Fold this sequence. Notes:
This protein is of the alpha/beta class. It is built from nine helices and eleven strands. The strands form three sheets. Strands 5-4-6-10-3-11 form a six-stranded parallel beta sheet, with helices on both faces. It has a three-stranded antiparallel beta sheet with strand order 7-8-9. Strands 1-2 form a two-stranded parallel sheet. The chain is globular.
Amino acid sequence: VIVCLIGGGQEINTGEAGLEEWFDALSRSFQGWKVYYSDLIAENQNYLRSGSMKNWVKTNGLPNHDLHLGVSVRSFRSEQLSNFIGCFLDIDSEKAKEIYLTNVSKAYPIVLTRNLEVARDWLRKKSKGTRRCGLVASSGGIRLRPLGINVKAKIDAANWFLNDKRDIRSSFYLEEVATEFDVQGLELDWVGVCWDADLRFDLDSNNWVYKKFSGTRWRDVKQEVARRYLINAYRVLLTRARQGMVLFIPEGDNRDYTRKSEFYDGTYHYLKSLGISEI
Length: 279
């Protein structure tokens, strides 16, 4: 017997294919195996996106609802945090707002700010004793650099995650920022998520806009797999905090064509519409 515990929406790098790759291997090379799976796998696009793969699973697999592990042990304050993040990123705004207001907000603090120093102060006040805090950002958040957030500066993971408040290399100092590649599979107590214009929300189309900074400007991300990696990068960042988080959305600067206010305003207003309060 082989038991695989696999999360959805965690593919963030080239070569990572998630559950679809497991089922593809089973369909090609292990057709005689009995495959038991959660019945939710074929219904959620974060697990299987291919229609043909969904059909193969439904035809050849044996569904069992009890195989779905729906309770998150990472964010122990709120079992519904991952569901909220999923709905929020999938732009199911009404459901996301309902989950947030009826469940998440009561036990798991999420706040919004457009001032980085305000975010840092909030994290310092929350991280009492040994409770750990830190800043995270997308590896594609290149234009956070004018604000002192340099995602290209590689952290030393051991120092960042383990050293105490007196060490400037530790997460406590809120100077060095970790990306999705540094924190995947790990977590802190309190997290500041620094949001750049690589993933921006367009209020007119009610959809995400996917960008990559290349050379001197933002360019469209057109490949579906690259878009999936980008949205999943933010999914990882938004689920790293055990006890609560602050979302920092820059105001932008219209004097800088790479950091126009319009690149950030849509995301800020979308987050506020979900019921997240500003500090």
